Amino acid sequence: MSGGRFDYSQRQIENIANDIEELLERQGKEKDKEELFCDREYYLDYPEERYYYTYPKEVQDKMREAIKHLRIAYVYAQRVDWLLSDDDGEETFLERLEQDLQELKDRNYKNDY
Asked: How far apart are alpha carbons 34 and 84 in whole angstroms?
């Protein structure tokens, strides 16, 4: 297995980005029955509680910005991990870093990196 210098902690960065992204995707959607903990009467009085909270647009924009930066941080941490673990040499590190950042940019994130 490659890497390991940081005990694979960079995966936590990726997980945080994924969690925020998931939260944004489910905004305004109805919760599953398993997620509803109150009785039927409560949801009749508070029907909005049956749905995931929707954040204001400005907050959503900042959360998307956070996802972008977290994904960039993950790429850097991963590449440095491989460099310090001697899985990549210096030239390969630079090439793969640039390639990974470009793939990230091409995939979803059109903002400047």
From this structure: 45
**CA 81 distance to own-chain centroid:** 19
Question: What 3-state class would DSSP assign to 88?
Answer: coil
Q: What is the pLDDT of residue 113?
A: 43
Please tell me the predicted confidence (pLDDT) of residue 24: 98
pTM: 0.83
The H or E element spanning position 67 is: helix 57-84
Distance linking the first and last C-alpha atoms of the chain: 29
Tens digits of per-residue pLDDT, 60-69? 999 999 999 9
**Could you tell me which residues come within 8 angstroms of residue 98 by beta carbon, excluding any fewer than 6 positions away?**
none
Report how far residue 81's alpha carbon sits from residue 101's, in angstroms, rounded to the nearest whole number.
15
